[in-house]
Amino acid sequence: MTDRWTGSVGTTVDLKSIVPTNRQTGLVGTMLDLVIVTSSTYPVTGTATTRQTVRLDLLTCTSRLYSNLETLTYTGLEALTYAQLEQICTPSSLPGSVIVATSQTTALRLTAMRPLTRTITQAQSVTRVIDRIYQRVLTAVQGQSVVPSRIYTLALSIPKNRAPTTQVSLLRQFSRATLARAATQPRMVRQISLTRAVSQSTSAHIAGLPVKLSAATAVQSRSLALSRAISLIRTIQQVTAAVVPRVSQLAPSVTVSNVLDCRQAVSLTRATSQATAVSIQASNVTPRYFITLSLTQGQAMSLQTASTGAPAKVFQVCPSRTIIFPMCQRAAHFQAPRRAVRFTVEVR
Amino acid sequence: MTRLLTCGYETGDINEAGASTISGPSTIAVVNGTPTPRAPGTYCLKVLCTSGGSIATYKTFTLSAAKTEVWIRFNIYIHPAGGSEYTIAVIFDSTSTAQTYIGWNNSTTVLILHLGSGATLATSVATMSADAWHLMEWRTQITSTTVGVSEIWLDGTRVINFAGDNTNTANANVQSVNLGFCGGAAVSTGMYVALDDIAINDTSGTINNGQISDGRVVLLKPNGVGTNTAQTRGGTDSGNNWDQCNELPPSMTDYVYSATAGTRDTYALEDMPAGSWSVNCVEVLAYAQNSDTNPGSLGLTLKSGATTSEGTAQALNSTAAYYRQLYETDPNTTATWTNTAVNALEAGTTVR
Question: Which of A3, A17, A313, B63 has the most CB atoms less than 10 A away?
């Protein structure tokens, strides 16, 4: 018989507090590490949007419409806007019918980065030791009147090869007037101190030369010929042919106006880029010509008058009537009492 | 994550970051004057000698892991009084043994890079004037126990460039940094060293992975109701949840609380200070605790744009402490922070 000995019995219980633990927040904030943004450049950004007029010159358009009913002829140069061209044309599935829409968007963006740093030291202190005997201290206070003038000219030109060239020219006028007076006071105390003070009535404080870049104006005119002749040939089963040669010309006009104002600038770096995009969209259309037919019908109107003589009025009242007029007996010249007189009236 | 530490003591609380060591007749405190903190911040760390003698009083910032290359940025203001060479920064390996340290000579005002043993590795030609704020950046790269690079930039200019053995131990790494008056000859009463805008990067990741450059650490406090107001006000009731959580220095006299997981508060924050700034990183900071010793966590929450991001739940202690959640990029765009996004931020907590 084997005994089972039990010395201790227990149960391990994992207790969870039923008292809620509050999470208490006394401060909430956001810590930032900020970087100082320092720049000695002063970006000036100008954006010029080119407005262009797309002109499609319809040189000649001759079409013969169906069944040789009408013939419409355009001759000569007629400037049509795209809207107008679209108005006279309507999409069609007819083979060979093509209308060309040309659009061009050009954006000219001028960016000038001009770091300017200028330091002018006005006060000068010059110490000279001459043979270790004479010491002359020259203190010069220099007043300056500086009149800067800068003219920036921006010229943009875009030749037909679409490679824009930019020229930035700077015309600088700079005048400086300096007046200085110096006073020297030598002293001999084993060493001679020669002090000369230079002063002038005016003082200038110029830490940075204010420069105002007044205006940079670029006027760009460009005549961009697409050198593309577009022929519109419409073939109709019948004896109809339409030939519409077109020459498209783009005549953009760009006006860029920038006013650049800078308090400090040393150099001007200007990057000019012009993006030119020309897209040509082609869609099948059929020229639709509004043909106004004016139909005039001639009428021959003749007025004829037939006359058989003097107009007559015939009144058929009765075939005959007998009217009896009583006669006064006193009328001497009708001395026919109770005579009957017959009148016959005929109306036609 | 490459930003390891961001601290300007803008909470006004000495316990905001780092462990304090006070040795000798000195104090370490967060002050808002003498010297004037670097604007637009309002506080800085100050080590003051209260009586003549040898002192070693500083903050220790321990990194989450040992690193082979770190960039340390801090701004320092030294008001000297007595002494000769002030040890102002020390880096330690994973065993808390000094690898290298920076000294400032009170007479020549140059900077000296020492090995942890005391040997001089390099001395700057440039000087660092007393009684003025200076930006100091210290790069330490330890390739091996014989090869490394130590560079020091003073006010944006590299003044020490040492290549060679910059290890003092058998461990080719860095894991903690001391900043303050870390040692030196006895100094006189009134000497103080102030520090501000401290940041540490390592080189991993794609941002904040190199030289930090000059900057400021600022704290944006709650200033309005946010999208979420679900927690309960506790302590002194200020009337709104957000102004239970905006006092400086932080305290638990007024707070918000909840024991229900998922309960969330987010608050509108102050805008960035005026000036030309870009944002290196955003770190949500909360001063929080549990009401008892039972477990409880908070997920520090940030709402940027339409995106609400809750950080990993952090277990709280029963005593108040600081909890952080770093966002190096805007979670709403996954790109670097923009000033506009920062100004539109909401921050808060979610009970977990």
Answer: B63
Residue A278 token pair: 């020309």
Q: How far apart are CA A33 and CA B280, in angstroms?
A: 5
Q: Which two tokens stand for residue A275?
A: 């993006």
- Shortest distance, CA B246 to any CA of chain A (angstroms): 6
A–B: how many Cβ contacts below 8 A? 181
pTM over 0.95: no
Residues of B in contact with A32 (CB under 8 A): 217-220, 272, 279-283, 342
Total Cβ atoms within 10 A of residue A5: 5
C-alpha B266/C-alpha B348 separation (Å) is 4
pLDDT per residue rounded down to tens, chain B (352 residues): 589 999 999 999 999 999 999 999 999 999 999 999 998 889 999 999 999 999 999 999 999 999 999 999 999 999 999 999 999 999 999 999 999 999 999 999 999 999 999 999 999 999 999 999 999 999 999 999 999 999 999 999 999 999 999 999 999 999 999 999 999 889 999 999 999 999 999 999 888 999 998 888 989 999 999 999 999 999 999 899 998 998 888 888 999 999 999 999 999 999 988 888 888 899 999 999 998 888 899 999 999 999 999 999 999 999 999 999 999 999 999 998 898 999 999 999 999 9
| B343: helix, strand or coil | helix
Phi, psi (rounded to 5 degrees) for B50: -90, -15
Contact B255 A25 (CB under 8 A): yes
**A17 and B290 Cβ atoms separated by less than 8 Å:** no
Q: Residue A31 and residue B316: Cβ atoms within 8 Å?
A: no
Cross-chain residue pair B276–A38, CB shorter than 8 Å = yes
End-to-end CA distance of chain A: 171
